[in-house]
Amino acid sequence: MRIITEPEIYIVGRQSIDQEAVSRFLADHETEWETDAERGSELIVELAGRICYLSFGSKQFRKTNASYIGNLIGQGHGSVLEHAVWDLLITGVSRSFTHELVRHRAGTGISQLSQRYVDESTADFVEPGIIAGDPELHATWLAAIERAHESYTTLVETLAAKVQAEHPDLGRTARMKMAREAARSVLPNATETKLMFSANARALRWIITLRGGEGAEPEIRRFAVKLARIMRDEAPTLFGDIEIVTLPDGSEGARVGQYKV
């Protein structure tokens, strides 16, 4: 059993563009387009914006991708950001965290570790910072976690035997699923979980906007700040207006320049 205090974010998928298809589109419509964009996410957003206004042709070559997208964001034209998508593998977060994150359903796809199928007898747990920084509170928290985890393990073993006795025709997978889905009821919200989280640029900006603020729950705020740093490097023209700020309590938060995108 490990105690975790920081989330981890892995970008496992990102936007790409089919240059051949774009060239065929331009040829079919007797026009041309050049861009200095090198990242697929920024390229697809520019293309989406230009489709809206059919702003192709040689006169458009003067505008860089950064200036073009900067103008879109400045005008609050956020819908074109929905075409740029990332796949994030998130670990080191608690069930409390995912209860908050899954509220951001629009523009996202979510696949989370199943406690019905996955054995949590080797589970890790996420400790809130305000508790971790106080030895007495930490001791109280850890004792509660250990009791809950021990109860889970005992329940799984006992329930598995009970299900086998009452339903001898069930296979092992079905039997263990029945045991784990009941035993998980004693696991705390602090239980660490993992999920695949796919989201478009607009959805990610909104998560950072809401969850990076002073009023956000601390665990998801740490995630929002980490996400902001990653996305500013990943696609600076789409996330470059986001600042990392120091909040009144001394912790870090995120502030979005163009709030209405």
Tags for this entry?
46% helix, single chain, 10 helices, 3 domains, 8 strands, Alpha-Beta Plaits, alpha+beta, 261 residues, two-stranded parallel sheet, elongated, 17% strand, 4-stranded antiparallel sheet
| CATH class placement of the largest domain | Alpha Beta
- Rg from alpha-carbon coordinates: 24 Å
- The percentage helix is 40-55%
Uncertain ranges: none
Output the CATH topology of the largest domain. Alpha-Beta Plaits
CATH architecture of the largest domain: 2-Layer Sandwich
Distance between the termini: 42 Å
Biggest sheet, in brief?
4 strands, antiparallel
| 3D shape | elongated
Judged by helices, strands and strand pairing, the structural class is alpha+beta
Beta-strand proportion:
15-25%
**Rounded mean pLDDT score:** 95
The largest beta-sheet arranges its strands as 2-3-6-4
Helix and strand succession? EEHHHEHEEHHHEHHHEE
**Total domains:** 3
- The number of distinct β-strands equals 8
Number of helices: 10
Describe what you observe in this structure.
Helix content is 46%, strand content 17%. It is an alpha+beta fold and 261 residues long. The protein folds into three domains: 15-81, no CATH class; 85-113 and 193-256, Alpha-Beta Plaits (2-Layer Sandwich), CATH 3.30.70.3180; 116-190, no CATH class. The strands form three sheets. The protein has a four-stranded antiparallel beta sheet. The protein has a two-stranded parallel ribbon with strand order 1-5. It is elongated and about 75 Å long. The two termini are 42 Å apart.
